Fold these 2 entries.
Entry 1:
Amino acid sequence: MENLALIDSFSEFKDDKQIDRVTLMAILEDVFRNALKKKYGSDDNFDIIVNPDKGDLEIWRNRVVVADGEVEDPNEEISLSEAQKIEPDFEIGEDVSEEVKLIDLGRRSILALRQNLISKIHEHDNTIIYKQFKDLEGEIYTAEVHHIRHRAVILLDDEGNEVILPKDKQIPSDFFRKGDNVRGIIESVDLKGNKPTIIMSRANPIFLEKLFEQEIPEVFDGLITVKNVVRIPGEKAKVAVDSYDDRIDPVGACVGMKGSRIHGIVRELGNENIDVINYTSNINLYITRALSPAKVTSIKINEDTKRAEVILRPEEVSKAIGRGGHNIRLAGQLTGYEIDVLREGAEEDVELREFSDEIEGWIIEEFHKIGLDTAKSVLEHDIKDLVKRTDLEEETILDVINILKEEFEE
């Protein structure tokens, strides 16, 4: 039969999980009406009866009987003699309903119908998938590694939906094999050419926040609130938590006995070092806690510039700055203040920016990145250590040290 391929199409899609019977009927009718418009110029006088369960349909064309020789629009009118071939007792002015066979549309039209139907069904499915995952943005999702590419890992979920985990959304220590289950948050969902692009992230701070919700019952129940999360993925994170119930110790509840509760989260994040601190609206205290494990001597706040000068004993400075400057950088991001570290008793020290006439700005910035903002803070460090921790050549560092030493020799 000419319409066999089309009927097969109905059978393919009638059991589609993404589409209900009413929607399928609407799509089928729309596809056939477009075909009728192309062939007859209009579909206004056609009735289409679709039965997706059985995989068949009926098309009826309604025309008015007119006298022989007076047919002006053959799509809407039929001559008396033609009408009487259908039923001998038809008279002028009466309505004639005549079934249009699919074969009458022609082989090419039937093939086009099938392609159009498949396209419409896929478009509908993609819209459903897009809406489904759009509602999941910011939520934890699990999918299986299907294919590993240079710049991304391609995952498939249980429904066969493709989820992309780009390289820059992974934790640096992440290593995946085909078949591995991967957890992350759905970071973004976009429609590109009617196909949804679903991006997962394991580096986003929200992933850590959602892991707290998932792994710590008091956070899930709302007894403890995660106020802010900042991360250097795979290296270090700081999480500020609060509780409106004075009987609950939010930090203790999140960390657990000997770190039992947070251990699973740390392992999921590639042994990322997680500092959990008590949130407070007292900014001095908040910055003090954020710089943990360093012990702060005093703080001077400038609300206008959102800067904080923190005084520490010399032995506490390296703790405040942290490896690679991670601790002080995250403390600044967590509190929203730019933090300058000063050593106790270093009133005669000079800020590096004062040497901008002799030392190039990008070199000063390299020292700032590792928390060295003053002349003495640079001079107190070993040259080899400075070479290791910055992107500066030893010769450049020696030039800087000579310039700084001259300041204090004068």
Entry 2:
Amino acid sequence: MAKKKIVFQGELGANSDLAARKAYPTYEPVPARTFEDCFAALSKGTVDLGMIPIENSIAGRVADIHHLLPDAGLHIIGEYFMPVHHQLLAPKGANLDTIKTVESHVHALGQCRKIIRKLKLQAVVAADTAGSAREVAEAGDITRASIATSLAAKIYGLKTLERDIEDESHNTTRFVVLSRNQAWASPDTKRTVTTFVFQVRNIPAALYKALGGFATNGINMTKLESYMVGGNFSATQFYADVEGHPKQPALARALAELEFFCRKDTLRILGVYPAHAFRKTLD
């Protein structure tokens, strides 16, 4: 029987790769150059699942996903929260005295400012964390270091000079798990998250009225973000996560009230899935 596959954006050893291996250890991780390539692989059926980052506790939302996901024809079937730990990596023979530069994704560099200043290193922006690790390994230059994952160190044969060098210990990325097939969680699932997008009608206080149903029905909305669509200032789309299942009476009533104030056919449920255990720490 062929091994199932899970696609992620980036190179082998990226944080998304690490998340995919942790959440689905029996699946084969498949790297893709862009998020569009991830979605295309899912749509074509060449992979079974996708591990896609949607927001980070420090860097904020992954903007591309909010634009790509609503029209991708894919479904969210799960979520995964992963604490992000950065490692200072270098070729064998290097040490803290030999390294002069450190390469990584701009966000990783920004999240490790303290050690970069302490070691007086020159920061070099790379396309991604795992790619910087691969390039440092290929160069074999003991003056060059990389900030990447422990998985990247293992894959590319790099030495770990310092562990867990991130400035903030609470640095966490939330991923959504995508599938070509819809698979809603059971209404009996102990804790469920429903993700949907919508556009409200152009009338006074439309958003206020649309969201009122969630308050009156006791629905906890854990995420609400807006962004323009189609390059039009008048077309604003909202992306939301709420706790609950659409087949439970309270959320069903709230969604019905929301739809009344929405522009026609713009309310779309992207997924109904079990809440990750990490959410318990947020209560």
